[in-house]
Amino acid sequence: MAKPVQVLIVFDTRLGHTMNLAFQVAHGVKMVEGCEAVTRRVVAQEPESIIPRDEDYERVRAQFEPIEACSLADLEAAEAIVTGSPTRFGVMTHGMKALWDATGELWQRKALYGKVGSAFCSTSTPHGGQEMTIWSLLLPMMHHGMLICPPGYGDPSYFKAASPYGATQWSGPDSDRDMGPNEEQAAIFLGRRVAEVARQLSLAPVAH
Hints:
Helix content is 39%, strand content 17%. Strands 1, 2, 3, 4, 5 and 6 form a six-stranded parallel sheet that branches. Strand 4 (116-123), helix 6 (130-143) and strand 5 form a beta-alpha-beta unit. Helix 1 (17-30) packs across helix 7 (181-203). The protein has seven helices and six strands, in the order E-H-E-H-H-E-H-H-E-H-E-E-H.
């Protein structure tokens, strides 16, 4: 039996919106025969003193912390990597950046070279840096020589939500807005598209 094509979904979250996107991306991956979704989190880097302690945060933390933290071995083992982050002034979070900053040894060995890469994000406002955050997530992948796989407008949901660069969600000014059906479908489509491309590449003959 052939080894399944592994799609690694790595995310950061505080109020759960990016985590919910990650779960939908994983759902899309699982829709592709022969592909396996592996979900990992990053290690939060913000000082505990600046994080507001409320019921919503504690509820999300109870879901987030039991998920296994992403390791360099996880990155190397996957055929495709999809990263997701809430925006921090238009770029990825400190925790996500710290993960990529630790990949120098993988870069030296070209361990991620040729893997499929894509991204998703959430913001509290519709124009709060979604596309810039996705670009910040894609840049380290480009430095590693990964093959960027954008969703484009391959699904009708991308004409109503998200971005051709990656799946997105806006959570509302009070961060209490639930994911809409188009945002959910966009995340599912992203996972399915990345998995399909990674599987096709795994079946391609190796040039000698």
